[in-house]
Amino acid sequence: MPIVRVALDVPISTLFDYTVDETVVTGMRVVVPFGRRQMVGVVMECVESSDLSIERIKPVMQVLHDSAPLSAKLLELLQFCSDYYHYPIGPTVLSALPTRLRSDKPISVKPVLNYRLIDGAPNIDSLPKRKVIARRIVEKLHEQICSLAQLRALSATAGVQLKWLEEAGWVEQCDASLLPLASEGGEKISAHTFANAHPLTKEQQQAVDAVTQSAGYGCFLLHGITGSGKTEVYVHLMDHMLQHCPEHGRRGGGQVLLLVPEINLTPQLEGYFHSRFPDAVLVSLHSGLSENQRLHNWQLAQTGCAQIVLGTRLSVFAELPRLALIIVDEEHDSSFKQQDGLRYSARDVAIFRANQSGVPIVLGSATPSLESYHNATSGRYRMLKLTGRAQVDARLPTVGCINTSQSILTEGISEKLLREVGLRIARGEQSLLFINRRGYAPVLMCTECGWLSDCKNCAGKMVLHLRDRRLRCHHCGFQLRVPTACPDCGHAELKPVGNGTQRVESVLQARFPDARILRVDSDSTRNKRAWQKMREQIHANEVDILVGTQMLAKGHDFPALTLVGVLDPDSALYSSDFRAAEKLFAQLMQVSGRAGRADKPGEVLIQTAFPDHPLFRCLQSHDFDGWAALLLAERQMAGFPPFVFQAMLRAEGMNEGEVYAYLNLARQAALKLKHPVEIFSVVPASLARRANHFRAQLLIQATSRKALQQFLRAWHLDEMPARKLRCSLDVDPLEF
Ligand SMILES: [Zn+2]
Ligand SMILES: [Zn+2]
Description:
single chain, alpha/beta, GIY-YIG endonuclease, Rossmann fold, 5 domains, 7-stranded parallel beta sheet, 6-stranded parallel beta sheet, 19 helices, binds zinc ion
């Protein structure tokens, strides 16, 4: 009897054997008994015999036919991830699937909906004039059959209008296979409209040519300063790839995968790319979608219907049978790294995937990660530079420092910065004050005995939120009412120390009582629609001063913004995390790019006690290359990535002794292997206690990826007893 080897979502690095009495192929989902439960799994192999005796093998309960089997390519990609990140195969495979496909209940198959005009539908003139959207839909369907996604691109209310048109006898649903792109073989060259409004600069054209002329796999680093028009390069590449699918020389359109760092940006980007490719099928994939939406979009990608897939890191595992190009925008962004479960870097997996599929990949950034930059300068990747701003009259902002040790500060804000903000208000321009800390103040202190608002569960401090008079721990969520007196000595005067967004907001309110101030942080944008509304306010110039965290730094274009003030960047300069300075530079460069994008020149003022630090000097001269060269020299000397390869074993638990005992045991086992890797001592994590759990870590380092992988395979951590502890192995860790 045929036997299938199934990947199941259990934390054991093995496949499970089951018998099956119908024809099954790899990639199919099956429901199987597991212990007393039943689970859904994915068939990874079909074999004739098993190591187990046949009577011990249980039969598959049900083969699910509700969705096409996963492709061999995707399974290979997932196997690679499981091997490389040393994470069990079952959870790796299952976590790549949309939630609905992980359920052991068959999904009710909602076919991908397409619409066409009914033969003999009345003339468009008989549609009421006020039915604007309905008229647009009918016009569109006159040209071709459209999917729901294509029609939604016309308007968000297309669904309602379609229902009305169906009932009124204008349109009908039809089979997905009628869509030109869904047909297997794809003999037709798919037509799409390209709104090509902007002529490319010479540099942009060179970048486009380099990618389109490369045959097969190639990794390109598109290093372009803010405003240099990276997106325009993406759009032209998309246009090219939507017409050419390189795989097997097959004619017809390809699919483009565009990875973006942040879910907040996807609606905006979706709108933008729709406007450039009005009739292409574009879907997004991110965790903000409902389960049904995500499944629907995933299936559109899987059938090849979706031409452009726009998504956050998880979309790197989307099925893309006609993949022609991958773009990773803001490739340096740390959100591409998953921080639990399968700790993959979507950027790195995307590179493997491009290589596997023999297609080009473009990594875009104004401030590339040192890893990518090093690979590009050493010739592993190809460097494509955009050095000029795409708009000729747009200038880079001037960047200056305000030395805080020589300035008068009002609750942390210098007089000079306040004056400049005042000038902008008088001119009807916007200012942004950037501080990467939400709440009112990072800690509350007793002026008498020095008591600090420590969290009782963590090694961190409780942050003061004055608005609702609470102390909150940002690590574990524990909160308290603000005490009226010192809990230790009873002294009545408790003083907030340091600045957060709320405090900056209140300083500005006191100074500029008539100004319209908007605070943008994860507290004020908790409501899904709030951020969207705020952006509209900013665009309509209904805001004078913005106060915000890194949320504001990313990819938003605010035309009236001419001043950016940066508060309190210094802590990153003496952080224990060797990547802190790299991240700070990228963040400041990004936030600086917000100033003066339109015809108004921008100014950036950074408050720091170290105005001569090379980081600020390079920032002032917009010299990323100089800064990168400096950091790379430092990293090489200190033996840090990208010159070495790292893996971090982390453990946490209620009992401190057990945490350290486990890690020390693992360390002893590692030392015994005598591999050519460097094994560090067990040390506390940077937050040594969180939510009552002690946390510690063990770092392993090697001079080559291969040596590190060989060591990790030999280490056999899964055989180490780690009861009651939460342990994880992080390959290429970003956080320390
Ligand atoms: Zn006290
Ligand atoms: Zn806490």
